[in-house]
Design a protein that fits this description.
The chain is 38% helix and 21% strand. Strands 3-2-1-4-5-7-6 form a 7-stranded mixed β-sheet, with helices on both faces. By secondary structure, it is of the alpha/beta class. The protein has a single domain, classed as Rossmann fold (3-Layer(aba) Sandwich). The longest helix is centred in the N-terminal third of the chain and has 15 residues, at 42-56. One of its GO terms (molecular function) is O-methyltransferase activity. This is O-methyltransferase.
């Protein structure tokens, strides 16, 4: 589902900040070599992530779902000079392309790649976070949220991607469609949880911004 027309999307991109050269190169390589390149955040959403990070000025960032590292580098743009990013992905085949572009960036010594199950990795990170980006398997969104809430700093921001799920959240859910049903429950939880305040932005496939109270 396209929430806005391709022409309007192009206008939005042209009137937002330019895509940095390193990210443009990563964008091209992802579309040339990696399966499901649509998963990449892309120019406009990347600039939104960068702007949010610059407003938050996080010291510690956690990303659940690295893919090829595009969003990681966008979030790094707003990180404090002594900051760190822990980024988790379960797909070992993506490790080399992530590392290639992380090493080309100014933040190569501040980004730690974790390979494996995020549900097992997160409890052992031993940090408190100012900014978290959830963009992994939708079936575990509720579990990820429950894991990260105790390690969020007050005033911290939780970003949740794909919360509109190609418009499936408006349809009568199929009981067998676990991802859609989890996202419906997740979106309700973010709205109702008294520990956070939330706004859902209709950016690409839906991006929720939740602030920890």
């Amino acid at each position: 589902m396209h929430f806005i027309s391709p022409e309007l999307e192009l206008y939005v991109e042209k009137h937002s900040e330019n895509e940095p050269a390193l990210l443009a190169a990563l964008h091209r390589e992802t579309f040339q070599k990696i399966m499901q390149p649509r998963m990449l955040s892309g120019h406009f959403q990347g600039r939104v992530l960068s702007m949010i990070s610059k407003l938050v000025r996080p010291e510690n960032i956690l990303e659940i779902g690295t893919y090829t590292g595009y969003a990681t580098l966008c979030l790094a743009e707003g990180m404090k000079e002594n900051g760190s990013i822990d980024t988790i992905d379960i797909n070992e085949e993506l490790f080399s392309i992530q590392k290639k572009y992380f090493d080309l960036s100014p933040w190569k010594d501040q980004i730690t790649q974790h390979m494996g199950d995020a549900l097992e990795i997160i409890p052992n990170l031993g940090k408190k976070y100012d900014l978290v980006f959830i963009d992994a398997d939708k079936d575990n969104y509720l579990n990820y949220f429950d894991l990260i809430m105790p390690i969020m700093n007050k005033g911290g921001i939780i970003l949740s991607d794909n919360v509109l799920w190609s418009g499936k959240v408006l349809e009568e859910p199929n009981p067998k469609d676990l991802s859609t049903n989890v996202l419906l429950e997740y979106n309700k939880k973010l709205k109702d949880d008294p520990r956070i305040e939330t706004v859902l932005l209709p950016i690409r496939d839906g991006l929720t911004v939740s602030r920890v109270l």
